[in-house]
Amino acid sequence: MSGIKSKNGFILVELLIVVLILVAAIAVPRMVASADTAKINACNTNVDLINTQIELYRAATGSIPTLTTLFTDTNYFPDGTPECPYSEGTTFPYALGANGHVTPHAH
Fold it and tell me: Which residues form the domain of 91?
């Protein structure tokens, strides 16, 4: 058995690979959950913005606007209709409630 050496223990590269796999297994799910939470919070912030603009419209005109009227008025939404950041490209599917406000939708 000349020239064949037995391998005892791990080499540094193997240990680094194991550590990276463990870190990825812990970090990736947390980052995905954080991204979802951030999108939901951004959506709720947009709902608050819409309700604030409804109140400004009501103070200026004395009436509650329809969402179409509000979203197309560049004085209230100069950048256009707010979109739900949780599902990009989806405009807010809200109706005005009895109190004249919109409520957050479930994600």
Answer: 35-107
